[in-house]
Design goal:
There is one protein chain. The protein has 13 helices and 10 strands. It has an 8-stranded parallel beta barrel, surrounded by 5 helices. The chain has a two-stranded antiparallel sheet with strand order 8-9. It is of the alpha/beta class. It folds into 2 domains: about 5-35, no CATH class; about 50-299, Divalent-metal-dependent TIM barrel enzymes (TIM Barrel, Alpha-Beta Barrel). The longest helix has 22 residues, at about 25-45. The chain is about 45% helix and about 15% strand. α7 (about 140-150) links the parallel β3 and β4 (about 155-160).
Length: about 300
């Protein structure tokens, strides 16, 4: 072997990767890269955690009501929601650390909202730093119009008397989706039947709390519905047979398992925290529950 072949390469002749490997920096950089990826992913997931304003169903009666009187609360909320109250609601949601919001129909109802008020509602949302990601209500041409005004991508709730073909036609024309929310249903088949098996415009909004009330495994239902799961209401309940909500992780719903099931489906939608307590202010636990979701998404 000739002498010049034994000469070490000069520092500036080493490739960047060779240098990193020889100085022991490669592992550190890889670790740092992976850590940054996790942080970025967590931040993105955090921005998708929405506050569902249906949580405030009891706000107009000092946070006391009975579930059977939901529609009465709905009507009272419509009457009480002016610009000042909407601004206050948005401010409190932002104060709890949320960046996204699912707007309950009673807070932006066809009976009370016109284009002018919708413009004001959007301005208030923007001032609070909130992005509207869903509309919790029934599907109709009127609610679709509201979603258009507020730039909301989909409605999550009930179809009323609409058949799947009619619902599909409405959504296609407006280019706004609809996701059926489970309440009494106990199986994936029951849920999917209501939307005719689903399509580009019709999907599923899984309410984890109502699956707990019905005594069925929410993660299993999520996996069975597969890619048709396009929105979720993250909720926990104390016991099957009732719909008494509680802190996430304290009830009978395997909420952590639901988040893992969504991950296996490569779910890219929002995580709408829902808790409509009959005897307390949901803002008292909003920060805690938002952080609970953040932590479990990161895990």
């Amino acid at each position: 072997m000739r002498r010049e072949q034994l000469q070490p390469r000069k520092f500036n002749e080493l490739s960047r990767r060779d240098f990193i490997q020889r100085t022991g920096m490669l592992g550190a950089l890889v670790t740092q890269r992976d850590a940054l990826a996790v942080v970025g992913s967590s931040a993105a997931d955090s921005a998708k955690i929405a506050f569902n304003t249906a949580n405030l169903v009891a706000r107009v009666t000092n946070y006391r009501y009975e579930l059977k009187n939901w529609m009465e609360q709905h009507k009272k909320t419509i009457a009480a929601t002016d610009a000042a109250s909407w601004r206050s609601i948005c401010h409190e949601i932002a104060e709890a650390g949320f960046k996204a919001v699912e707007i309950w129909e009673a807070h932006a109802s066809p009976e009370a909202l016109d284009r002018g008020k919708a413009t004001e509602w959007k301005k208030i949302l923007k001032q609070a730093g909130l992005k509207p990601v869903a509309y919790a209500g029934h599907l109709s041409s009127e609610t679709l119009q509201i979603c258009g005004w507020l730039e909301i991508p989909h409605i999550d709730g009930g179809l009323g008397t609409l058949k799947p073909e009619q619902a599909t036609d409405l959504c296609r024309k407006s280019e706004i989706g609809f996701n059926i929310e489970n309440h009494p249903e106990k199986t994936p088949e029951e849920i999917l039947k209501k939307i005719g098996g689903g399509n580009q415009w019709l999907g599923v909004c899984i309410d984890t709390g109502w699956l707990g009330t019905q005594g069925v495994s929410a993660p299993d239902v999520i996996r069975a519905c597969g890619s048709l799961v396009r929105h979720v209401h993250i909720k926990d309940v104390k016991a099957a047979g009732k719909h008494e909500t509680c802190l996430l992780g304290d009830g009978v719903v395997n909420v952590a398992g639901c988040l893992r099931a969504l991950r296996t489906l490569n779910y890219t939608g929002s995580y709408s925290w829902e808790d409509e307590p009959e005897d307390r202010n949901p803002f008292d636990s909003a920060k805690r529950n938002r952080q609970w979701i953040v932590q479990h998404l990161a895990g």
